[in-house]
Amino acid sequence: MPQLLLRRILLVIPTFIGIVALTFFLIRLAPGDPILLIAGEHGVSAERYAELQKQFGFDQPLFIQFADYLSQVLNGDLGLSVVTQTPVLDEFGKLFPATLELALIAMIVAIAIAIPAGVLAAVKRNTLIDHSITAISLVGYSMPIFWWALLLILLFSVNLGILPVAGRLSFIYDIESVTGFMLIDTLLANDKEAFIDALHHLTLPAIVLATIPLAVIMRMTRSSMLEVLKQDYIRTARAKGLSEFSVIFKHALRNALIPVITVIGLQTSILMTGAILTETIFSWPGIGKWLLEAVYRRDYPVVQGGVLLIASLVILVNMVVDLLYVLINPALRQK
Amino acid sequence: MSLKIHSIAAALLVLILTNSMHMAAASTLVYCSEGSPETFNPQLSTSGTTFDASSRQIYNRLVEFKPGTTEIVPGLALRWDISKDGLEYTFHLRQKVSFHNTEYFTPGRYFNADDVLFSLNRQRNKSDPWHKVSGGVYKYFNDMGFSNLIKDVIKLDEHMVKIILNRPDSTFLSNMAMDFASILSKEYADVMMKAGSPEMLDIKPVGTGPFMFVKYEKDAFIRYQAHPAYWRGKEKLDKLVFAITVDPSVRYARLRTGECQVMAYPLPTDILSMKKNPAITVDEQPGLNTAYWAFNVRKPPFDKARVRQAMNYAINRQAILDVIYQGTGTKASSLIPPTIWEWKGIDNDYDYNPNHAKKLLVDGGYPEGFEIDIWAMPVQRPYNPNARKMAELMQQDLKKIGVNANIVTYEWGTYLKKSRQGEHQTILLGWTGDNGDPDNFFTPLLSCAASETGNNRSFWCNKRFDDLISLARIELDKQKRKKLYRLAEVIFKQDAPWLTIAHSVRYQPYLKNVQGLKIDPFGGIYFSGVSLK
What we know:
The complex is a heterodimer. By secondary structure, chain A is mainly α. Chain A has helices at residues 2-29, 34-39, 46-56, 62-74, 88-123, 128-142, 145-159, 182-188, 192-229, 232-239, 244-281, 287-296, 300-328, 330-334.
């Protein structure tokens, strides 16, 4: 086990450097220049352009810029945003809790619905229930997030008026940001109404963000359950006279969950991509929206730093999933 | 007993809560803005989003634009004298103007000449200790030519400042009313510099304006509070909130549910439904912008005036207005929009007349027509909602006179760069005015100097035209200037280096209970003087 951990950690190092290199060169390969984009129609004189290039360090040869950046990153400095002139790490730190809160709630929603529904579909295989669940999952997976979000806003916010359109909290509440997690901050401020208001604000974005993971986890649970239910030990369990509940949830589901956990781990990256659209629509002040804007403006330090931090997060989650996988599956522990 | 106390306490709590909610709602205006500001210091930015959040609510300038117009009125300067040669401007400053008293700074004195010197010198002097703070890019200051124009800024006494220019410039006062010329507190700057955190000046602003900064969370909101000692009198609104909402459909949804009372930049396709909604008012005004199609006169066949005129006759601008602008634009018969000096289009503007266009081509030596490139912008701009589609419509029109057009496009930064170098044959582009002065369109876009830098995308350099606009720039009398620009425009239209296409109309939707909101010709928003019914 410690060996496995060590091996995984050692593997992270080249992955990490690869990511730094890839983001650094990819964003520069894309046409566009942050200085020209800031200048717009007004343009900028040649001397001024040279001056600004020097200021941002863009005048150096690309490989020197890369070497500088790499050493900077290894020292824990992700540089300053070209647009706002604030440290990338600070911006990320301020915005990340909002994304994490939304992603966690979305994941909880997705798992809470997907696993029981997947089990139900497998158990009631080829019935109307199974077909409906599979169909819903297919629709959920194929739905354009943007359109789906606007649809929900129109129904629940504009027409029914029961949920807020956007934001994290109504403006009548002024909650001090302590942890950056609105649900926790409102509780810390001991303001129940604000807590409920924050929950209301979370509902629609969480549903939207949960949609794709929900569909994926549901399908995986269903097929994995079907596989397990065919196994001999299930027949044995039934023959022993165990209750159907016990057969399904204790014997079948536990085994069926192994691939499902892998899929859940993989969904973290999907959640991060989904966050870009969801956050933009719901005016959710997270890193998705931040990154998107940085790409538009060719704010190189932000794009590089942001992608690097998210990639590190995905690597970390995948590592945890791998380890979890080993813990759950005794057969792997032996190897 | 304890139950009783509890229920009384609970009832009180409910009462306080509902009461405070009610009170907050009565005097708080929520504005759904379109994005996060880059900074709270307008000297450092060129973005309207930043100006809306900073200079337009928090700061004042020596001279300001009268709300809803491009007219110059006194701001922090009570009055000003201009020397006969037009080189010296003496500003007499308003007295007893208070800076904001915030949680992070308590002012110890009123506004005075030191603040003016500080605000201008930071941008002007490369050796100023403040020059390099927060990146030190003072784009607008340089763009408007202030770095070469201003010779010196002198404090005559506590309440008198003299600005000496290198050459007379009739646009100087208009430029001084622009956001970058906002007045910041020197006293606050000194405190921050001493504390070792000079950049706080640009992050936590202190101004003299109608609203004080309270709190900002990136991509979420900005909170302001009325400045109790505002020199024009305390605002009727107690609190102002910018709810940052990037998606325009979502901004509209928030307006409909009352989550905000005023929204920024509506989608053109939503205007009709907004106008039908009895709870919403939609104000409109032609924007301070012009979309144009420029012909590169350095490349044949556009070196011939007849060909350029033919292009002017060939394009059906009404169809463009109907299809591309969908009613959110007006035909540009002039290169400057009607919001500037109530400018009226010129009489000899071109009508849609494909037959005449064809005749001109024959006269110009191109009876068989030719093939051209139309460069179309890859992005939506305030003056042009969809350049690619516009180019497609033009392609159809040109076909009718025997001209085959290919549409070319590049990434936005590349597009601007390549066209500045004159790689294009014809190009769709536009301009948004900065200071409400006609010169701000003529000189940067069509002067001979601008054809050197490439900002003049047609590279057209006409001596007579250039002399007229140079004269107009020095002349201080508005009526005389107007005549000079008229003459210059006649030459421009005859020689036709451009087809002037449209001025987009700016729409400002807000709820009916909002009063006193004036649509700003510069495309910004001011909440001074606004109240809730």
